[in-house]
Amino acid sequence: MGGSTILFSFFLLCFPKLSISTNTLTKSQSLQTNQTLLSPNAIFELGFFSYTNSTWYLAIWYKTIHDTEKTVVWVANRDTPLQNSIGFLKIDDKGNLLIVNQSHKPVWSSNHSTPITNPVLELLDSGNLVLREENENDPTRFLWQSFDYPTDTLLPGMKLGWNFDTGMEKHITSWRVTNQDPSSGDFSFKLDCRGLPEIFLWNKDQIIYRSGPWNGDRFSGVPEMQPVTDSIKFTFYADQHQVYYTFSIGNNSLFSRLSVNSVGQLQRLTWIQSTQVWNKFWYAPKDQCDNYRECGAYGVCDTNASPVCQCITGFRPRNQPAWNLRDGSEGCVRKTGLSCGSDRFLHMQRVKLPDTTSVFVNRSMGLVECGDLCQRNCSCTAYANIEIRNGGSGCVMWVGELLDVRGYPSGGQDLYVRLAASDVGIEGDSGKTSDTIRDIGIVVGVAGFILLALGIFILWKKRKLQPILKGKTEKRGFSERSQDFLINEGVLSSDREQSGESNMDDLELPLFDFNTITMATNNFSEENKLGQGGFGSVYKGSLKEGQHIAVKRLSKTSGQGIEEFKNEVKLIVKLQHRNLVRLLGCSIQMDEKMLVYEYMENRSLDAILFDKAKKSSLDWQMRFNIICGIARGLLYLHQDSRFRIIHRDLKASNILLDKEMNPKISDFGMARIFGTDQIEANTMRIVGTYGYMSPEYAMDGIFSVKSDVFSFGVLVLEIVSGKKNRGFYLANKELNLLGHAWKLWIEGNAWELSDSSIDTLNSASEVQRCIQVGLLCVQERAEDRPTMSSVVLMLSSDTASMSQPKNPGFCLGTNPMETESSSSKQEESCTVNQVTVTMLDAR
Ligand SMILES: *[C@@H]1O[C@H](CO)[C@@H](O)[C@H](O)[C@H]1NC(C)=O
Ligand SMILES: *[C@@H]1O[C@H](CO)[C@@H](O)[C@H](O)[C@H]1NC(C)=O
Ligand SMILES: *[C@@H]1O[C@H](CO)[C@@H](O)[C@H](O)[C@H]1NC(C)=O
Ligand SMILES: *[C@@H]1O[C@H](CO)[C@@H](O)[C@H](O)[C@H]1NC(C)=O
Ligand SMILES: *[C@@H]1O[C@H](CO)[C@@H](O)[C@H](O)[C@H]1NC(C)=O
Ligand SMILES: *[C@@H]1O[C@H](CO)[C@@H](O)[C@H](O)[C@H]1NC(C)=O
Ligand SMILES: *[C@@H]1O[C@H](CO)[C@@H](O)[C@H](O)[C@H]1NC(C)=O
């Protein structure tokens, strides 16, 4: 409360506006453009505002949040503004809310003419503006409420969808220009209640994205959607009276909103108290495969495949030449026509279910019954469960084309697609769906294994024969650059696809002249050398214009050719976040490759954190800011950037600090540069640093975002304690930092872990929270570890409930590669300890 009172008086000082002291407006009163109405706890404010002085709007904004501008969440007269600052809001005799202009003509009306005796207009703490009878507090008897007329923002408790009893539909529509012009824009997010309901994002009258149907836990097309540690809860409700999507917040000191902006992006924004910014928690469309019907009918979009459009098994491209040129929009057609009775079903896993606007739905039917029904009805092309919980329930059946299917590395749902028996590759035995599914499962499994083996073989071959193959592919025509050579490179094809013919797209690649770099770094002199990392040496340089840069001279072991390298740099240059070191561009001389970064004044975290003399200069507040910053940077890499990036080598020496000691993650995307990036897959080469590697990565080469979460956890514990995990490990297994932290935690003495060289007395709860987050992140089982979005939330709110950590992964003591690690020459240097191990023989 104290905080908001101070903020409140600050507002009064800054704006010459007179707030009406109460939070209600009655029939005899009016609200002038220089007055505002406050919600009881001063969370929201209603008033007039203008960006231009020539258009005035009645709006609701957060009173307690003052970003660079007011965060407006609702606008009454978005398309009928007042032309000048003279006007007011009033309640007329019929119970209408009216905004009238200088000549006392209404420019906007709530159009709700119900007889009303003592009307009261009130702004609630939820942000809902309600019109009610004076003594009526039952929400169901409100006469009018702003929550029924959303603008571009969905607040907690607001519903997006249909009420069939009243015929009322609620959706959100973007501003014409976000933060500039609130009039209705082109983009809207609307629930379609036909078939199995789902929500579509429209650009005028074109669908550009769909959420997929609700599967009981989340939308089929948003596998990353999860309730956040009890803080944000998502709800989808459907019965014969209404169908809607809504969300709620466990603690009303946390602010979160869903809105659609004027460039057609749907965003969930969450207010971070500690940094006072709206953080982009989630957004869509995220990638090429989110584009509606990207791969046409019967196509499957998969960002990890190259090209991203594939046909469902048993289908082939409808227009092969266009398909070769990476235009999948015409989709696919069956290889073999259906024959009804003897058709079989292909079991597809982890997909976004096809468009469900015209499907048959029965919520009480199970999967087997659903399959039988589909088998018997010759026009049924596919079926699936509706809900995924408790082994799945409900039946949805498609007739006709399957549109807008995409695959996910994890999450997604199971879909059963009708195929001619010959396309499935099994003869006879029709009817028994469940057997069919099992059989197909086996076939698909075996085929998958063969493909995997083939993939590994090709990759291995490719590695050995790289120069030869490279020469070959370059001579071949573009359309012949067959998938085989691109297989498993894990390179997004979207940016590469133009590279076939021209070099025009080099223009967008910031390419530095080699001579400029040589001069800037004083011919790569020893004095300019900042350090030596696993990927190469780093030099400080200054350009003629005075700008300082850091140049990373990549070691020549990089698996990539020049073209691939350029493509990767182009992708990574686009990743921009205040907690990532900015990659400015690259330079190429013969087969030598260099990356040019912005220069960080305070160098790397490890040089301060692990230095006895310097560590005390990092007080707790700085450390906490560093932890939060790294978390946000990592979240961006994992989730928000267009391409999911797994860092794979997160460690203290890869955290650089700028002038203000803000943390910036460096060396991200190196796995891509070195041509080995895949999502949740086995890798041939283990890139990473002992001490920070998750057990599953170090032992089996399996990496995923959760391996980064593990490294992050180690880093958090290091920052809290000021001690190196790796140092512990080399000395004595029992003294492993993780083990030490865990021991203190179960004894209830976690706080003792904090660095004795700094004062943490006043921040005990924050320290405790960080230790808990750290321990949650280093849990042995990857499934148990939180995602970075949960981590960011846990760090930013001291009320988010956190689970109790289970035991951490002690991969280090049992690592089979231990000997290679300790024989590394670079063990002494604190910035260099990257070890590369080839796992090829082990497979
Ligand atoms: C607010 O505006 C009205 C007329 O628009 C004016 O009469 C009144 O004095 C103003 N109040 C303040 C506090 O400026
Ligand atoms: C709007 O009017 C105010 C007060 O007259 C003035 O300070 C401000 O610059 C004007 N803004 C614009 C965009 O014209
Ligand atoms: C007030 O609104 C009326 C009706 O919309 C319009 O004709 C009139 O020009 C407006 N007057 C001012 C001063 O904006
Ligand atoms: C109220 O009704 C008028 C006339 O039918 C219409 O032009 C206006 O858009 C309506 N206002 C709202 C807020 O729906
Ligand atoms: C919500 O959070 C605030 C501070 O973050 C805390 O003081 C309050 O007790 C919390 N309320 C609930 C219901 O958890
Ligand atoms: C849905 O399935 C159940 C169970 O098979 C059946 O009893 C019911 O009649 C079906 N409802 C409709 C509308 O088909
Ligand atoms: C097959 O299913 C569709 C969609 O539910 C239905 O319209 C059609 O009548 C069914 N055909 C048969 C033969 O049952």
UniProtKB/TrEMBL annotation:
InterPro entries in the record: Bulb-type_lectin_dom (IPR001480), Bulb-type_lectin_dom_sf (IPR036426), Kinase-like_dom_sf (IPR011009), Pan_app (IPR003609), Prot_kinase_dom (IPR000719), Protein_kinase_ATP_BS (IPR017441), S-locus_recpt_kinase (IPR022126), S-locus_recpt_kinase_C (IPR021820)
Location of the Apple domain: 340-420
Family as reported in the entry's similarity comment: Belongs to the protein kinase superfamily. Ser/Thr protein kinase family.
GO MF term list: ATP binding; carbohydrate binding; protein serine kinase activity; protein serine/threonine kinase activity
First-listed, main subcellular location of the protein, grouped into a coarse class: membrane
List of residues binding ATP: 552
TM region positions: 440-460
Enzyme Commission identifier(s): 2.7.11.1
Name assigned to this protein: Receptor-like serine/threonine-protein kinase
Residues in Protein kinase domain copies: 524-810
GO BP term, example: recognition of pollen
Stretch forming the signal peptide: 1-21
Assigned GO CC terms: plasma membrane
Organism listed in the record: Phaseolus vulgaris (Kidney bean)
Enzyme class, broadest EC rank: transferase
Localization per record: Cell membrane
Catalytic reaction annotation: L-seryl-[protein] + ATP = O-phospho-L-seryl-[protein] + ADP + H(+); L-threonyl-[protein] + ATP = O-phospho-L-threonyl-[protein] + ADP + H(+)
Keyword tags: ATP-binding, Cell membrane, Disulfide bond, Glycoprotein, Kinase, Lectin, Membrane, Nucleotide-binding, Receptor, Serine/threonine-protein kinase, Signal, Transferase, Transmembrane, Transmembrane helix
Membrane topology category: Single-pass type I membrane protein
Domain Bulb-type lectin per the UniProt entry, residue ranges: 22-144
